[in-house]
Design goal:
heterodimer; A: mainly beta; 7-stranded mixed β-sheet; B: 115 residues; 6-stranded mixed β-sheet; 12 strands
Chain lengths: 116, 115
């Protein structure tokens, strides 16, 4: 596609429910990243995919957070048993290889998650 | 691990004023440096980037940034701002420790330009 797309754009859920956030990277990009943007914390890295594997998941805040990527394309970020502190904008980015120093990350519009 | 510090959280300027947003990073080795911008209601967009070479980098919309290695700085400048520059600006760095993969962002500077 022309850019990174994410769905849904907004998600409101109740505390304790599970949510799934989807990211569709730029066609042909092998590297995919998830970040979280929240008030007071700025933009925080969550997880990085190279193809379907995740060599760096150091930013996932707890074991309630998981992500997968299938077919080297679409990725899903799952948050189980959501808490109010999970409320944030979840951003996805992709880059062509993730291995070249000169790679640039291109960001999607984000999913705004609100946990009531 | 690298970190990024943006000096100002909020900046208010009048149109035609000059802009300089500070960014300092902590990492002793080779880094890539970026400025991203987020206009109201829009997604994060790349403004400019530095990988190597000329330390004065020109980006879109008349923005430029200067990499000063001795000061670990990458300040963003624009000689004359416009109302349409109202946005949040993020400085970011990636480094070999992350395989040049993940970005570390500053907390952002909200710029408000009054007409």
């Amino acid at each position: 596609g022309a850019g990174v797309s994410q769905s849904p754009s907004n998600k409101v859920t109740e505390k304790g429910k599970d949510v799934e956030l989807r990211c569709d990277p730029i066609s042909g990009h092998t590297a995919l990243y998830w970040y979280r943007q929240s008030l007071g914390q700025g933009l925080e890295f969550l997880i990085y995919f190279q193809g379907n594997s995740a060599p760096d998941k150091s930013g996932l805040p707890s074991d309630r957070f998981s992500a997968e990527r299938t077919g080297g394309s679409v990725s899903t970020l799952t948050i189980q048993r959501t808490q109010q502190e999970d409320s944030a904008v979840y951003l996805c980015a992709s880059s062509s290889t993730g291995r070249r120093r000169t790679d640039t990350q291109y960001f999607g519009p984000g999913t705004r998650l609100t946990v009531l | 691990a690298q970190s990024v510090s943006q000096h100002n959280h909020h900046v208010i300027l009048s149109e035609a004023a000059s802009l300089e947003l500070g960014c300092n990073y902590s990492y002793g080795g080779t880094v890539n440096l970026f400025w991203y911008v987020q206009y109201p209601g829009q997604h994060l967009q790349l403004l400019l980037k530095y990988f190597s070479g000329d330390p004065l980098v020109k980006g879109i919309k008349g923005f430029e940034a200067e990499f000063i290695k001795s000061k670990f700085s990458f300040n963003l400048r624009k000689p004359s701002v416009q109302w349409s520059d109202t946005a949040e600006y993020f400085c970011a760095v990636n480094a070999p420790g992350s395989g040049y993969s993940t970005l570390t962002f500053g907390k952002g500077t909200m710029l408000l330009v009054s007409p």
